[in-house]
Amino acid sequence: MTRVVCLTPNPAIDVTYRVPTLTPGGAHRVADVLERPGGKGVNVARVLHALGVPCVIVAPLGGPAGTWLADALTDAGLAVRAVPVAAPTRRTFTVVDEGGTATAFNEPGRPLTGAEWAAVVDAVNEELAGAEALVVSGSLPAGAPEDLLPRLIAAGVPAVVDTSGPALLAAAGAGPVLLKPNADELSAALPGLSHTDAARRLLALGAERVVVSLGADGLLGLAGGEAWRVAAIPGVTGNPTGAGDATVAALVRGLIDGTSWPDVLADAAALGAAAVLEAAAGDVDLAAYTRFLPTLHAERLE
Amino acid sequence: MTRVVCLTPNPAIDVTYRVPTLTPGGAHRVADVLERPGGKGVNVARVLHALGVPCVIVAPLGGPAGTWLADALTDAGLAVRAVPVAAPTRRTFTVVDEGGTATAFNEPGRPLTGAEWAAVVDAVNEELAGAEALVVSGSLPAGAPEDLLPRLIAAGVPAVVDTSGPALLAAAGAGPVLLKPNADELSAALPGLSHTDAARRLLALGAERVVVSLGADGLLGLAGGEAWRVAAIPGVTGNPTGAGDATVAALVRGLIDGTSWPDVLADAAALGAAAVLEAAAGDVDLAAYTRFLPTLHAERLE
């Protein structure tokens, strides 16, 4: 039985090329090509799947790239509800050199038609029957309906949203159980405020809880009148892409399991750190997670 | 009726991204994505098609990328004989900045099985029935049979070959009607010789004619005991990718039409220059070609 529905409004095939060095203006022979299903909602679902939480990915998919992506997710053991759309699914290209420097090229998501967005909403609502939570992660393609997230959140199943820009503010007003911006996204949406004040503004707009991921400064979690903080694990370095998605996976699991708020935050920080150790977004080092968890505790700020 | 069969042993989808500037280590939002069928044999066929010479592309194609490539060629009005293979067709990925600097990342062609190579040879031989020439253009994927080009050339239809490395020397021994290396390819295959001496070596190995494209220094053409030279059009700048393929298209057209050798060479130089003016490999500026042609004449060196 599906417990969590993971909507990925802007899925991608993440292509990674390894080259010895990146020389602008040069011609590079690529020794190693890695293609992997991507998009933040896909990464959240991968982590939930690794944690044993039954979930389904809902995503608009188009063209040969969309077919490839659906097949690759199914092959990885993930449940997928593909919503067929005309526009081909986008790619991201990342070039990694021998020193580990990553240079990313992100195609924009191609616009969907109004009827295609309506089909996405219908698919989410069908999959939500009997589910305990909805996760919406990632950007929206240009031209997405402004009321898309409010409508999905208002449908009644507790919604956890990790997005940015105007969509973040629009989501807050519809009463999600949790918003999870990172520090940059929060500052961009609500400039000129401290992280705590900006998070309070999201609560005032209607969010029940707000968690702000602060990278090396850990996590900040607000709920009701309380603010909590979890420090980061010292010395954890690696690939930060996907850490936020692992954090979201831990948060949604904690919420549907009824775990206490401080324990949910500590768990989310530990799983985020365990994701940093993995080269690919959507993977977590479960052994490291088990080591990290007892060392982390949420501290009440106010 | 097909006059020319264009074998592309290593086809690709050429993906071009436009970005304002390329910053190593940065994350780039890609405003403009262009996907186009690529591979040198494909480019030759595009130019022959633009010249009104009926031709067919033979290429091993695999995966969703292979399907896309066959469909895109068909949509462009080109005849394609796709040989289905298991390995997905590769991509090349070029990032062009606002200053026009192109940074290229080329995936290697994935290996085919022996049975797949046999199917490629069978397809070429079937398409050659009634045709006047075979063109083989581009690199061979790793693991291609060493006797692939010799067997195709020895089949009897006049063969024009544009390749590099050991395959260039192997082709020479089988008696092709024409080899068309560029200066770098010729020097790499036969190091330490002048272009003329290296070209003579290819004649000695068995090639009937050799044309060396020298970029801004024009073309060098050897046949029998004669050596001819055509200067480049002064001041033509732009995209040199695809100029060699336009040159090959002009050479093969001239040979099957029975045009005199000096006129074939002048025509090839004019069409190559007209390709430099176009942003995409496989396109030629036919108006420029018409202007250039009367200004070019082959000069006999010996």
Automatic annotation (TrEMBL), chains A, B:
GO cellular component: cytosol
GO terms assigned for molecular function: ATP binding; phosphofructokinase activity
Keyword Amino-acid biosynthesis: no
Gene3D superfamilies, alphabetized: 3.40.1190.20
Carbohydrate kinase PfkB domain boundaries: 13-282
Keywords associated with the record: ATP-binding, Kinase, Nucleotide-binding, Transferase
Presence of keyword Kinase: yes
Family: Belongs to the carbohydrate kinase PfkB family.
NCBIfam families named in the record: 1-PFK
Name of the protein: 1-phosphofructokinase
